[in-house]
Amino acid sequence: MTIDQFNLKGKTAIVTGSSTGLGQAMALGLARAGADIVGVYNSTAPSNKELIEKMGVKFVGIQADLSNLSSVPLIIEKSIEAFGHIDILVNNAGIIRRNDALDFTESDWDDVMDVNIKSVFFLCQAAANQFIEQKTGGKIINIASMLSFQGGIKVSSYTASKSGVNGLTKLLACEWAQHQINVNAIAPGYMATANTEPIRQDPVRNRQILERIPAGDWGKPEDLQGAVVFLASEASNYVHGSTLTVDGGWLAR
Ligand code: NAD
Description:
Layout: E1 12-16, H1 21-32, E2 36-41, H2 49-53, E3 59-63, H3 71-83, E4 88-91, H4 106-134, E5 138-143, H5 156-176, E6 181-188, H6 197-201, H7 203-212, H8 225-232, E7 243-246
Helix pairs in contact: 1-8, 4-5
This protein binds nicotinamide-adenine-dinucleotide.
């Protein structure tokens, strides 16, 4: 084992939701390890082209709405057009809706499931078909959550979707390991991003959360960079169907 096994030079990584929060940090981490980046962003977020190309790798932005499947083939086609191959897919785009389970609406259910699990599955499928056609194998990293393991509160569709991500990661790993495709997930703990702004602004929830984190603070998006580079690299070639928690010790408590 040498540090070279973490080198991603010459690899192409697709990162969804790459313009903000955890996706942005993971795209920067993969770029720093040498990968060219395809950043998938929705209409409200700008791309990170300048920031990433400063690191000496190439960046292509693809604007796509992952609330429906029409952009899935387009993402693969445009990536191949730009770089000739894909090697890594990070399914990071995700949304959350908060309401009591008794009042939860169908649209708050469907909107979250469409982005957080349906698009994730069909992007995995499209990437895996491409990896098999290339005969190169590949790396898929799905972004799970503490709510892949726990119930949470007021986030029915989010918990269902992220629990689904955990199960799906294992199923796909079982089906695709034979093709040298590694499917794994990262479960971030409580990280300081737009997604968690409402609970960080709630003094009671904020205190309750901080009291439970052994590391004593909210995670920073950069805290995911080591995990994503590991799971995207040769160093993890025998790791299949794992969900790696990066949570300051939250689940260990
Ligand atoms: P964020 O809101 O900054 O990032 C979500 C990203 O998804 C954004 O870039 C957004 O543009 C993109 N996105 C949303 N809907 C989309 C759509 N329809 N089409 C295309 N892109 C879309 O929040 P974040 O915290 O960085 O979240 C990133 C991922 O990490 C999500 O899957 C989230 O569930 C997960 N996560 C976050 C935390 C946390 O504490 N912040 C913890 C566990 C898991």
